[in-house]
Amino acid sequence: MAMDFTERHPRRKTNASITRWCSVIIPTLNEASTLPVTIGHLAAEMRSGGIEVIVADGGSTDGTVSIARALGCVTVQSPRGRGRQMNHGASQATAPYLWFLHADTTPPADWVRQLRKAATTGATATFPLRFATKRRFSLLHVYGWLSDFDVEAFRFGDQSLFVTAQNFRSVGGYDEGMSLLEDNDLVRRLGKSSGRLSLLDGHVTTSPRRYRQHGVAFTQSMYVFLYLAYRAGASNGWLLRRYQRAFG
């Protein structure tokens, strides 16, 4: 079920919201090793007061929350689950635009210019994806390259999502009943409500850690299988059981 923002989690009151143009929402669960790198790419705009960074933590035990606070982020605690965490972070946002960014994903150098350009049109937007790998030839390069195409099937959370707070709340945010593919589901609902997703220039870079752990071909094959099953109408519970069987 998507979240009703009119009833839960009132927004924080702050005078800084007058000048902030974007609230960056980062869901975390034991991301102490990755979060500082990602925040480093946002730090200049944080210092200028243009953005706030809200870390929505799902119960980390590795110091993620204390690191986030030390880096100047707003921190909120949430029941575990990426959709729940991102909804909870968004409920605390004070800016007119929301940018959902994973803790192990770093934005391009000109991300401010790119997002401000998208903001002038009010478009929902995302970046193409690249994986952080030094291998010259890898299937990961192919998988990243596919995100360059304007195809709804290639839209996932690692690419980040930029959306007006109004549009996000109008569709009820992330479906908290979904443990998988909640990002693709949101993009599909936003597309029906406010128009097709805009693909930005450049790319975000994300960690291939799950691919390294389970094997590139196997991991991608499972993602394709799960996505096709989702589009064929499989329940999220069924998808989750297959996911856990594959990845533990």
Second-tier CATH architecture of the largest domain:
Alpha-Beta Complex
Topology pattern, helix = H, strand = E: EHEHEHEEHEEHEHHEEHHH
The average pLDDT is 90
What gross morphology would you assign? globular
Pfam families: Glycos_transf_2
Keywords: Cell membrane, Glycosyltransferase, Membrane, Transferase
Domain Glycosyltransferase 2-like: 23-135
Organism: Neolewinella antarctica
Overview features:
single chain, 248 residues, alpha/beta, Spore Coat Polysaccharide Biosynthesis Protein SpsA, Chain A, 2 domains, 5-stranded mixed beta sheet, 3-stranded mixed beta sheet, 42% helix, globular, glycosyltransferase, Trfase_2_rSAM/seldom_assoc, membrane, transferase activity, RSAM/selenodomain-associated transferase 2
What does this structure look like?
- This protein is of the alpha/beta class and 248 residues long.
- The chain has 2 domains: 178 residues, Spore Coat Polysaccharide Biosynthesis Protein SpsA, Chain A (Alpha-Beta Complex); 41 residues, no CATH class.
- The protein has 10 helices and 10 strands.
- The strands form 3 sheets. A 5-stranded mixed β-sheet has the order 3-2-1-4-8.
- Helix 9 packs antiparallel against helix 10.
- The mean pLDDT is 90.
In short, what is this structure?
This protein has 248 residues and is α/β, with parallel strands linked by helices. The protein contains ten helices and ten strands.
How is this fold's topology laid out?
Blueprint: E1 22-28, H1 35-48, E2 51-57, H2 64-70, E3 74-77, H3 82-91, E4 97-100, E5 105-106, H4 111-121, E6 125-126, E7 129-131, H5 139-146, E8 161-164, H6 165-170, H7 182-194, E9 198-199, E10 204-206, H8 209-214, H9 216-231, H10 236-247
Parallel strand pairs: 1-2, 1-4, 2-3, 6-9, 7-10
Antiparallel strand pairs: 4-8, 5-10
Helix pairs in contact: 9-10
Pfam family, one: Glycos_transf_2
Main location: membrane
Protein name: RSAM/selenodomain-associated transferase 2
